[in-house]
Amino acid sequence: MNINKNPIIIALDYSEESQVWELIDKFDDEQLFLKVGMELYYSCGNNLLHKLKDKGHNIFLDLKLHDIPNTVGKAMKSLARLDVDIVNVHAAGGRLMMERALEGLVAGTVSGKERPMCIAVTQLTSTSQEVMQEQLKINGNIEDVVVHYAKLANESGLDGVVSSPLEVPLVKESCGTSFLTVTPGIRMIGDSKDDQQRITTPKQAKSLGSDFIVVGRSITASKNPLEAYLKIKNEWNDISETTIS
Ligand SMILES: O=c1ccn([C@@H]2O[C@H](COP(=O)(O)O)[C@@H](O)[C@H]2O)c(=O)[nH]1
């Protein structure tokens, strides 16, 4: 995948296809990078993916596979046929699972087509260090855990990770600048955090080195989604704004 694609990935967290078109119709001819997650994929399936691709949009199919290596490998072989741009797994599934995921993708990609990028979720951006330690029983500092999972994903041959923008400098330092960082947990100043814990603004994410930001509710729940998207795009393109902590 060409890294110079639209860096703003819009999370289509909807259950109905009509909601998707209602949003996309507001964007005229803009070539969008769209994230289809579990809610939408389980409701609308491959049919919608094909329609979005036919309109020229890029797709991140965010199903976060996490199962035994054999199952994930075979599932990825099926997903490879969908011709999406990015798929993902949970790094917590371990090295063999990630290696099988990649093998499945290579095996399933139609000859002459580029295989989808495969990235691994490190720690969900809704997970705080406290929750990670107390509920998940993972010891240590959350940045160290994210970097550890990123290194494991890198050694397994994956193309990058999902993390908060806050961890991007450390991930890039450990895994190299070409290792992809796709970062949700994006909020504009004054927005509610909702269930997210490790957040930044789009501008902070850019200055921390994120390759792609994933934005859902700040666009989709906005009164004017196009205006919200353009504001984020402007913020991404202009490094001189204030930050939130
Ligand atoms: O660690 C993760 C992994 C995935 N996500 C997904 O990104 C969007 C974020 O939506 P917002 O409305 O901008 O909070 C959502 O689809 C998540 O499933 C994530 O947030 N964190």
UniProtKB/TrEMBL annotation:
Record's signal peptide:
none
The UniProt entry, under SUPFAM superfamilies, shows: Ribulose-phoshate binding barrel
List the pathway annotation: Pyrimidine metabolism; UMP biosynthesis via de novo pathway; UMP from orotate: step 2/2
User: GO cellular-component terms in the record?
Assistant: cytosol
Record GO terms (molecular function): orotidine-5'-phosphate decarboxylase activity
According to the UniProt entry, what is the EC number of this protein? Answer: 4.1.1.23
Q: Which CDD domains match?
A: OMP_decarboxylase_like
The reaction(s) annotated as catalysed by this protein in its Swiss-Prot or TrEMBL entry are: orotidine 5'-phosphate + H(+) = UMP + CO2
Residues annotated as domain Orotidine 5'-phosphate decarboxylase = 7-232
State the source organism's domain of life. Answer: Bacteria
Q: Which residues form the active site?
A: 62, 64, 67
Its GO biological process terms? 'de novo' pyrimidine nucleobase biosynthetic process; 'de novo' UMP biosynthetic process
Q: Which InterPro entries match?
A: Aldolase_TIM, OMPdecase, OMPdecase_AS, OMPdecase_bac, OMPdeCOase_dom, RibuloseP-bd_barrel
Q: Which Pfam families match?
A: OMPdecase
| Gene3D superfamilies per the UniProt record, alphabetical | Aldolase class I
Q: Identify the keywords attached in UniProt to this record, alphabetized.
A: Decarboxylase, Lyase, Pyrimidine biosynthesis
Tell me the residue numbers annotated for binding substrate: 13, 35, 62-71, 125, 187, 196, 216-217
Its quaternary organisation is: Homodimer.
Q: Which family does it belong to?
A: Belongs to the OMP decarboxylase family. Type 1 subfamily.
Q: What does this protein do?
A: Catalyzes the decarboxylation of orotidine 5'-monophosphate (OMP) to uridine 5'-monophosphate (UMP).
Q: What is this protein called?
A: Orotidine 5'-phosphate decarboxylase
